[in-house]
Amino acid sequence: MSVPRIGFACQYRHPDRSLPAGELKTIEAAYNPRTTTLRWMDSVSQAVAYAKLGEIVEHNLQAQLRLLTYVATLPKPLQMLRLSSDLLPFYSHSKVAAFYQRPEMEQRLIDGFAAIGEVARATNIRLSMHPGQYCVLGSDRPDVVENSLAEFEYHADMIRMMGYGRTFQDFKCNLHIAGKLGGDGIRAVWPRLSHEARQCITFENDEKTYGVDACLALADLAPVVLDVHHCWIHEDAYIDPHSERVARIIDSWRGVRPTMHLSQPQERLQELGLSTEQKLEMPEVLKVAPKRELYGHSARMWNHWTNGYVLQFLDRFDIMFEAKDKNLATLEFYERYLKSA
Fold this sequence. Notes:
- By secondary structure, this protein is of the alpha/beta class.
- The chain has 15 helices and 8 strands.
- The chain has helices at about 20-30, 40-45, 45-70, 95-100, 105-125, 140-160, 180-190, 195-200, 210-215, 230-235, 245-250, 270, 280-285, 305-310, 325-340, and strands spanning about 5-10, 80, 125-130, 170-175, 200-205, 225, 260, 320.
- The protein has an 8-stranded parallel sheet with strand order 6-5-4-3-2-1-8-7.
- α6 (about 140-160) links the parallel β3 (about 125-130) and β4 (about 170-175).
- The two termini are about 15 Å apart.
């Protein structure tokens, strides 16, 4: 059986938080992506804009290599990483497409992403990506669908250049169903997705509209990523780790070890009287906080009951942490629950 893993998303945080803020910013900047704005690019000449964008892309490629090198030094259960979606600013935007289509830039991207993929495979780090909220394949607006397809294929291009997308779920690219047409809209555009996109796409339940059952309705197309925090909010209860629906989620991965997501509501709930040891029963939580306050993610995994609950999945799932403190949250969890296991 493969080693169970827990991972963090997109950004590096230095463990020594006692350092001056400026020093922390400098250290962390070497690992984290940079970007710019279309407004700034429109305010300068094309030559200036392209030069700056080239610097940002080069920094981002090198930053991902540094981040992978860091992850490779961690204990094996921590060698799991979500890469940032912001590595190539405005890649899918019509105003910037010409920049990325220049032969010298195309070659730099091929070489840069190939190096990232080689490091990840050599060190056996499990990678993923997660396009943002504006990637809505199930929209009822044709313009939104077109932009969403372009945005997802931007991720597929990066995945392809890294050397993934060749076999089913050799790389996870996660998406919420979203949009008024939901799953029906996704089925309608499914044939338009590239081979690599279809190999890597997964569907995650959200907290408002498209829950676990909506994702399972698409399990014939792609695996389901169970987000237990979203499920708790959507259904007002925690899903049973050994339920029939969890078994169906596992089956949707067709023999690949599934990934699930873990987050918790913000630590402010402690100030409102909820204990770190207390099960977060929705009726009790709603007495002190409206549901909309539960959507935000915590800095660390502060609720120990929830952590114990999630550990029941770890024999079958890898877990992506969605926490504001990024790698520090996974390190703390590992030290508390997994190091001596």
